[in-house]
Amino acid sequence: MNDFVIGTSAFSDAHVELMKEAGIGWVRQDFPFPFVDRVGGELSTPYRKAREVAQSWGARGLNVMGVTPLPGSGGYKPDDAGRMVLHWHSAFPDWAGALGSDAYLRTYREVCAFLAGDLHGVVQMWQIANELDIELFAGPLNPRQGAGLILHGAQGLKNADPSLMVGPNTAGGGAAYYLYGHLYASPNNHLDYCGVDGYYGSWAAGGPENWAPRIAELFTLTQKPVLVNEWGFASKGEVMNEDELRQNRAGLSACQFRKWPATWDGGHTPEVQAEFVRRVIEGFASQREHLMGMFFYRWEDQERCWQCGSPDCPLEIAWGLVSVDNTPKPAYHAFRDGVRRLMG
Prior knowledge:
By secondary structure, the chain is of the alpha/beta class. Helix 3 (about 100-120) packs parallel to helix 5 (about 145-160), helix 5 packs across helix 6 and helix 10 packs parallel to helix 11 (about 330-344). It contains eleven helices and ten strands.
C-alpha cells in the first residue's frame, strides 16, 4: 500500500459523498470480540453487525482500517461524594483467559488471525487495540502486558495475511515511550508503522506546531513510517481555571469540571478549530517523507460525552468536521482545502 492515507472515525450513517469531497478515503472502525464461547465457535451478534458495517463502507467506496478488539474500556461515574470515578470493564469473555496471562495472549493472537482471514478484502489495515498507554483503555494491564498484547496481535494478523499493514497507537504520554521502545526493539515484531494520537490544545498543552517535530521524533525512534491515528481540536467548551487544573493534574477527571485542561489561540470555537486544522495539515505536509497518513477524530459531532454520558460535557461532543446532522462546520472546509494542498 503506497498511497497516503486520509481517514476519519465516523458513524455508519455518515454522509459519504461529503467525506469523499474532503479527500477522505478511509474509515477507522472498531471490531468487538468475535466469538461467543470458544475460538472458532459461534460468532457474536455484535461482531456480525460490525462486519456488515465494514462491508457497507467498502460498497460505498471507502477503505477500512480495523481496530482489533480492545481489552476493555472505561467511563466515569460519580461516587457517593459526587467525585467522578473511572470504572473499567473488560471486553473479553472469562473463557479467553485471565487478563494479561499467557492464555489470554494466545487467545488474542488466534482472534487476530481469525479477523485477518474473515475480513480479508474488507479491512486493508489494522490498528491493534487502542491507547494501551493509558488506564482508560488499558485498565489493569501494565505497559509490558500491553506491549505483549500488541505483539501477539500483530503476529496473528501478519501470519494469516502478510499483505496487511498493522501497527499500534498510543495516547502519546510518558508510558507511550516504554511501549515504543519495547515494541520496535523486539525482533520480528511484525509492525509496519508507528501510530500515535495527539490532541494538542485540548487534552494536552501545545498546538499545531507540535506535530511536525513529533512525527520526526517517532520516525527517528522507530524507523517506521508514522501514522497519526487520531488528531483534532474540539470546537466547544470552556477551559479550567488554575485550581481546577491543579485538581485535574492530581487525578480528578476533566469530566468533573466539564472543561478543558488546555486550549490554543482564541479558545474552543468552530473558527479556531478551522484554523487549527489548517495549520496542522501544513505541519503534516512538512513531514510527508516520514508520514504514512492521518485519521482525523472525528467526522461528526456527538450528542453526549461517551466518557461520562452527559450531553452538557463538551469533552467528547464537538470534535467533528461536521455537526451531528452532517452539516459542514468551518473545520470541514479547512480540512478539505488543506488535503487538496497536501495531496497536490
